[in-house]
Structure formats: C-alpha cells, structure tokens
Fold this sequence. Notes:
The structure is a single chain. With 297 residues, the protein is α/β, with parallel strands linked by helices. Strands 1-2-4-3-5-6-7-8 form an eight-stranded mixed sheet, sandwiched between helices. The chain is 43% helix and 16% strand. It folds into two domains: 1-30 and 166-204, no CATH class; 43-165 and 205-291, Rossmann fold.
Amino acid sequence: MKNLIRAGLSAIGMFSPPLAGRLAFELWRRPLARGQVREAERAIHAAARVEVVDGIVTYAWGDGRRPVLLVHGWRSRASRYAGFITKLLELGYSPISYDGPGHGDTTGPMGTILDHERIITGLADKHGRFEGVIAHSLGVPFALYAVRQGVAAGRIVSISGVAEFGYLVDKFSRELGLKPTVQAELRSSIERGLFDGDPEIWTRFSVGPGEAELLIIHNDVDDVVDPSQVAVLLASYGPKARFSPKTGLGHGRILSDPAVIDEAVAFVTSEEVARRPSSSSDASEWSDVAEGLDLGA
C-alpha cells in the first residue's frame, strides 16, 4: 500500500506539487490505525475512573493525591501506560491520563498540539499540580509545550521523544519519497489547515528551554523516532536535562520494559534523584552515537 501511495504522489507531484501536497496532508493528519486495549492492559484500563470532558476520554486512578500525568503518542492510547500506572499506584501516587483526539476511545478528528495543551491544562485545573509527567513519542512535545505555557509540574520523563515539531513531517516525506517542492507544499498545508497559516509553528512548537528536571530515555535503534532527536532535546532543553540510553527495545516495547518503568517512576517520585546536569559534551557524545546508526527512514 505504501509503495502504491508513494508512486501516486510522485506522479501527481510531477504535474501539480500543490495538489500532491494537499493529498499528502490528508494522509499525514490521520493515524490510519486506532490503538486497542491489549490483554495485558485490560485490568488497569477497567480500574480507571473514566470521565468524558468536551469529548475527550480521561482516566484517573488512585485517591487523587500526588497526581502524575501520562501523555501517549501517535497511534497510541492511555492504556499503554499500564505498567507505569501499576507502579505509581503501589507508591501511593495517582496516575492521570487521556486518549487524545482521534485516539483510543476518544472519537472525532485528530487534534493539534494546541488541543493537547488545552486538554492538559484542563486536567491540571481539575487535579492540581502534577508531581511528575511521563510522555512518549509525539506526546513529549505536547507535554513540554503545555508545561512551557504554564501547567505546573515536577520532574518530567521523555521516552522515545520527538524534539523538533517538523520531524515527523520530514520523516513522513522521506518514507513517501516526496520531492522538495511537494514537501514544501505539505508544510504549507499544515500551516494553513491547522494553524491559521502561521509559518512560525515549526520553531514555536519544538522543544524549548525548560526549568523542570528532565530525564530523556531513548533506544539506540528506533524506527519511529531517530536517536538523533536526543541530541536536539538535550541542546534545546538546557542543563536540567539528562539522558539514559537504552538498547534492544525499539519504539513501542520500551513502554513495557520493567527497567524503563522503574527508572521513569523513580525519577518522578524520588525525593533524592541523582542530578547530573547535561553539558554540551553530553549532547555531542550522543550525537556521535546517533551518527553511527542508520537514521534513514
């Protein structure tokens, strides 16, 4: 199917880059697959207090004290955090999450980063200051942007996170073999169709400097979010970011790895977290590692 789409967009792009860009936009904005609750997640999913707020399905566990926000990524859902939720409950924390627009049990069209900011802000208004935030994949820029806009939170964990807002567009374009003219039209379609024609979104919604302690967890081979994004995260966020490289886990399985769960939960809940501020050398070292990998689509 991908080869057929690729060939079709290539043919259309030869005659009309704007049309090919608009068609690519319609493909880009839809995840094409809606994540289902897995067998290992059913018990935790069923135990949640479920509330639908403005069409968004939200979940809460625990007694409400010491809330921790969990933000899922593209084609995912809140139940993917089952292992984290179990661990947080054992420690007396109250996990909070939601299925993003067009994901999981939330119906309707896909949401933008601004929609996720609104949702996260609403959850913060309801549950109070988050003791911590754990985000995965595209959920990372969503969560960090919301915090940058004023959502109060303690420590933050990025797992397989995207740093540059345009990264997924660039990766999508590489996978479909879009010519530069068509890719430019795709970006323009995103600006016009979702953000009122604002050309600054690629900078504004990328990860920027942050004040909270940030732990970056990323696998050395990730076919969805390249390890090179780690160096961008470290350089963009600032000295309060540190990273913990992993191997052999990929993009999705990393969320069910017991060691990753323990490390992430310990980071957001521990009173005494070992703080090793990252430096420019940290970023360059990880860049060297990333450059040694096959980062192509």
